[in-house]
Amino acid sequence: MSQYQENATIIRYEQLSEANIRLTLQSDAIAGAARPGQFVMIKTATGKDPMLRRPFSIHQTSSTGRLQILFKIIGRGTNLLAHCRIGETLSLFGPLGHGFDIHTERPACIVGGGMGIAPMLFLAKRMSRLKKDTAGDTILFGGRTQMEVEPLVRDFQQIGMRCITATDDGSYGREGFVTEIIQKLKLPQETVIYACGPEAMLKQLHIYTQVKKMECQVSVESVMACGMGACLGCNIPAHDGHYVHVCYEGPVFHAKELVWK
Amino acid sequence: MEVVRNRDPYPDLRVKIGALHLQNPVMTASGTFGYAREFASLMNLHRLGAVIVKGISLEPRLGNPPPRIVETACGMLNAIGLENVGVEGFIADKMAYLRGIDVPVIVNVLGDTIEEYELITEKLAGVEGVAAIEVNISCPNVKKGGVAFGTDPKMAAAVTRSVVERSDVPVIVKLSPNVSDIAAVAAAVEDGGADGVSLINTLIGMAIDLRSRRPKLANVIGGLSGPAIKPVALRMVYQVARRVTIPVVGIGGIDTAEDALEFMVAGATAIQVGTANFINPRASEDVVKGIGEFVKKEKLPSIRDLIGTLKLE
Q1: CB pairs A-B closer than 8 Å
Q2: CB-CB under 8 Å, B281 with A51
Q3: Domain boundaries of chain B, sorted by first residue
Q4: Is CATH 3.20.20.70 correct for B15-63+82-203+224-306?
Q5: What is the ipTM of this complex?
């Protein structure tokens, strides 16, 4: 489990919608070591404000050492990143955390909600390479509106898994929440759910998989200072009354390990 | 006559805190460097002056509920709540690795009562590989209505005396800046027998989310660290260094060698790199390197010749 600090050059900038940006970075060491579900810490300012790095899940990597992140502009850090230009470098630290445990012999249902879709492209691609057959696998991917979902559809469709999209307002794909749609899919019990998205979505998936006695892996978010287990700032409650730390024990957990309020 | 030049490419960076000898003045601040192992693959641990590990209490502590940290202008607030493995877990699980890093290991200790400080010190006495103890006195004294030990010179001296009596290694006392006269606390701690003082611990602050009108930390208040506190830390190091004769260790917003050197000019014998470790895991090693370059460039016989050289008219 090697981690690297690397100055990565921005080689591609895609504005997928008004607030959603995808950056492609040349980051050989980190891209080479990364596994699906892991994340990187990125310094968004050259000075001291914002001071801390920001965590970003790895959207996908390539064998040529490229690494992508997908993010929504929400605060000052992401706003600065959105104003980066091709050719500039960013300080990356990673790959960090514990990613998804990929079951190669069992069917998969990959569920992404909103920006939670970001790590799922990496997961789906790695999975399709590791598995003999992805005919029984599903990617279920939802957002608020067409703007959030449509720009990513082609990337997912290329993988060869069944791809189902949904929007809250019905402007693209099916209408409704992914947590409603998944119930209609009649997934076999041995299916493993891999999910990332808003907490309410993950909670509903946890309840659903508990009832159906299915395995559910979730990638969760937290504020964090270091990303590597030093600051202990990213704790969340675990079912046994203790805390777990998102950065090094996660960000991927079995849903049943966590406390769902 | 030929002048004999010092051709040693390695500048003399050695400093001393009581009987504790350091190859250079750079340490890692407690709570920002885990138990060192976390950083092993990211930097050369053996280049450091010393490693100070996460604060240890008598019993393991779970710490505070989330959110525990929030970023503020040029700094961050934390209310981790002293999450740690407890002194026995520390000795059993963490010391074996730390003994192998070839750098003095300083154990930061904390307690709710004087008795807890005493028991931890007794448990650490004789443990191979513990080079010194740093006493965190910013904790509330539960037997005295929760007033922090470090805010009252008498209580600070009493804790110091208790630890010094039971310790077989040098004792450094880490001072709280949340007082009106930090030099008075430092003087009391010196009377208590401390081998050195380190300062500053975090400044108590808070942050509010205007939309929800809720505090941004679950604990409501937390400790401010980072470059935002450096001027306050520098001032306090200056005041304390003029008051006490024991070595002073400067802490507070040190990101670079320049920051570290300023603290030494103000009177610090050594320094600690804290919050910067979160942003650049190699920060402490970079500071060592920068200090060495400075000593060479300024042609100082040793780094010790910089300590307390502040020029006042």
Answers
A1: 90
A2: no
A3: 15-63+82-203+224-306
A4: yes
A5: 0.93
Q: Is the Cβ pair B66, A236 closer than 8 Å?
A: yes
Q: Using CB atoms, pick whichever of A48, A52, A236 lies closest to residue B278.
A: A52
Spatial separation of the C-alpha atoms in residues A43 and B76, rounded to whole Å:
15
Chain B residue closest to A243 (CA)?
B62
Separation CA A112–CA A114 (nearest Å): 7
Q: Taking CB atoms and an 8 Å cutoff, what residues of chain B touch A52?
A: 71, 76, 278-279
Taking CB atoms and an 8 Å cutoff, what residues of chain B touch A234? Answer: 66, 68-69
CB contact under 8 A, A235 and B69: no
Please tell me if residue A229 touches chain B, with a CB cutoff of 8 Å.
Answer: yes
Walk along chain A (261 residues) and give the pLDDT tens digit of each residue. Answer: 689 999 999 999 999 998 999 999 999 999 999 999 999 999 999 888 899 999 999 999 999 999 999 999 999 999 999 999 999 999 999 999 999 999 999 999 999 999 999 999 999 999 999 988 888 999 999 999 998 898 999 999 899 899 999 999 999 989 999 999 999 999 999 999 999 999 999 999 999 999 999 999 999 999 999 999 999 999 999 999 999 999 999 999 999 999 998
Chain A hits for B75, Cβ within 8 Å? 51
User: How much of chain B, in percent, has pLDDT values that exceed 90?
Assistant: 92
Residues of B in contact with A235 (CB under 8 A): 63, 65-66, 68, 83
- Among candidates B198, B163, B235, B167, which has minimal Cα distance to B22? B198
Which residues have C-beta within 8 Å of that of residue B124, sequence separation ≥ 6? B87, B91, B107, B109, B130, B133, B167
What the block records as the tokens of B238 is: 């200056």
Of chain B, the end-to-end C-alpha distance in Å amounts to: 38
Q: Is A228 left (phi over 0), alpha (psi -120 to 50) or beta?
A: alpha
- Domains defined along chain A, listed by start: 4-96 (2.40.30.10), 108-219 (3.40.50.80)
Measured between CB atoms, which of B32, B66, B74 is closest to A48? B74
Distance (Å, whole) CA B295 – CA B290: 9
Reported for A149-158, long-range contacts at CB under 8 A and 24+ positions apart, including other chains, are: A149/A173, A151/A16, A151/A17, A151/A20, A152/A16, A152/A70, A152/A117, A152/A121, A155/A121, A156/A120, A156/A121, A156/A124
CB spacing of B38 vs A230 below 8 angstroms: yes
Q: Residue B283 carries which side chain, given as an amino acid letter? A: A
- For residues B216, B220, B225, B231, the Cα torsion angle rounded to the nearest 10 degrees is 110
- Note if the pTM is more than 0.90: yes
Where residue B139 falls among pLDDT bands split at 50, 70, 90? confident
> Does the beta-carbon distance from A235 to B66 stay under 8 Å?
yes
Inspect the interface and report whether the beta carbons of B281 and A225 lie closer than 8 Å.
no
